[in-house]
Specification:
The protein is an alpha/beta fold and 371 residues long. Helix content is 42%, strand content 19%. The termini are far apart. Bound molecules: zinc ion (ZN).
Length: 371
């Protein structure tokens, strides 16, 4: 059966276990983004070695190439990408809505042109749910409209109301299977009353888990945390809570402190491909000349290959020489760092020392790199 049990709480922060048809995962958890059936620059074994237990796949990319029918015929996404563990897929909506000029929306769904070949496609709450079923996603997301920021309260309300109608249709199209889940997505912009109305609508429909969407779209961390403080306490305590598309290590620590269990973001993988490393001493850019003859480990506390087998000078050289090993090693490091950060938060929650641990982690970032 699918479920989330909270093992310990410390303030609003929760440590738990997510049980799925494809295995159990400890929470809080960060999900690496495997856009097109691959976490870029990483083999599946390497992703597992970072400590990741759950990965995300993008429905938009997979439905266009290689196509949901083909993935289904080939045995589903787990088999296709050699990830037997749990996979969460987004609905495809976020990418489609981002295709300015290439899409038209109506009450029933959204019609769009592929960025690959210009071919016309349509995504509805029903088809988005069906495609994720074909992909064999462990966790399916409802189709929603990510309300842009800024939006007036009236605009945010209309957008949220549409998303709630789509959530009901997504739920009606959902085929329940043991160990599988469908999550509803809370919208409502930065308006607490709309967020509350959205939570009421979704819990009225009833989902296995709840995501908070429409954040990290330009509102800033302070406002994002205000929205979380107004929203998360309204969500059912016995269901997992997922903050979509977030974020920096600082965002993760703050959001765990407000009761979020699950995260996804392209940040650690994208940054890794552009020479930026997240470390216990803050963000380092390995292209910077000051690393050219620095033989020290990137992050002395880290267990990844980049940190245990190489020095900063070598990583710097790889990026300067445009060697593909540079992005590979730094992606591995960043995902290892994110997983270790989550594990550290979990242990702190279990030990009742979340606030002190979070403060120590932030102090390390603020102190920076002792050159
Ligand atoms: Zn490392």
């Amino acid at each position: 059966m699918f479920g989330h049990s909270t093992v310990a709480t410390d303030g609003a922060a929760r440590a738990g276990v997510l049980r799925t048809a494809h295995g159990a995962v400890e929470t809080p958890v960060f999900m690496p983004v495997g856009t097109a059936g691959t976490v870029k620059a990483m083999t599946a074994d390497q992703v597992r070695a970072t400590g990741a237990g759950l990965v995300l796949g993008n429905t938009y990319h997979l439905m266009l190439r290689p196509g949901a029918d083909r993935v289904e015929r080939l045995g589903g996404l787990h088999r296709f990408m050699d990830w037997p563990g749990p996979i969460l897929t987004d609905s495809g909506g976020f990418q489609v809505m981002s295709l300015a000029g290439l899409r038209t929306m109506d009450e029933s769904g959204v019609t769009f042109r592929s960025h690959l070949d210009g071919s016309a496609h349509r995504l509805t709450p029903e088809s988005a749910t069906g495609i994720q079923h074909q992909l064999d996603a462990t966790i399916t997301m409802v189709l929603d409209e990510c309300t842009p920021f800024p939006a007036t309260e009236a605009q945010a309300e209309a957008s949220m109301a549409l998303s709630m109608r789509w959530a009901a249709r997504s739920r009606a199209a959902w085929v329940a299977r043991p160990g599988y889940a469908q999550f509803g997505i809370v919208q409502g912009g930065v308006y607490p009353a709309l967020r509350a109305a959205s939570v009421a609508a979704l819990t009225g429909i009833g989902f296995e888990g709840y995501a908070v969407g429409g954040l990290a779209v330009g509102e800033g961390q302070a406002m994002m945390l205000e929205v979380l403080e107004a929203t998360v306490p309204l969500l059912p305590a016995n269901r997992p809570r997922y903050l979509m598309g977030v974020g920096t290590p600082g965002d993760l620590v703050a959001a765990v402190g407000r009761g979020i269990d699950m995260f996804d973001c392209v940040m650690p993988t994208r940054a890794g491909r552009t020479a930026r490393a997240f470390t216990s001493q803050g963000v380092l850019n390995l292209r910077n000349a000051r690393h050219a003859e620095d033989g020290r480990a990137l992050d002395p506390g880290c267990t990844c290959t980049a940190c245990t087998r190489h020095g900063r000078a070598y990583l710097h050289h790889l990026f300067r020489a445009n060697e593909m090993l540079g992005p590979m090693l730094l992606t591995q490091h960043n995902l290892t760092y994110y997983a270790a950060l989550m594990r550290g938060l979990r242990l702190a929650i279990l030990g009742g020392g979340f606030a002190a641990h979070a403060e120590a982690v932030r102090a390390g970032w603020a102190a920076g790199d002792p050159v």
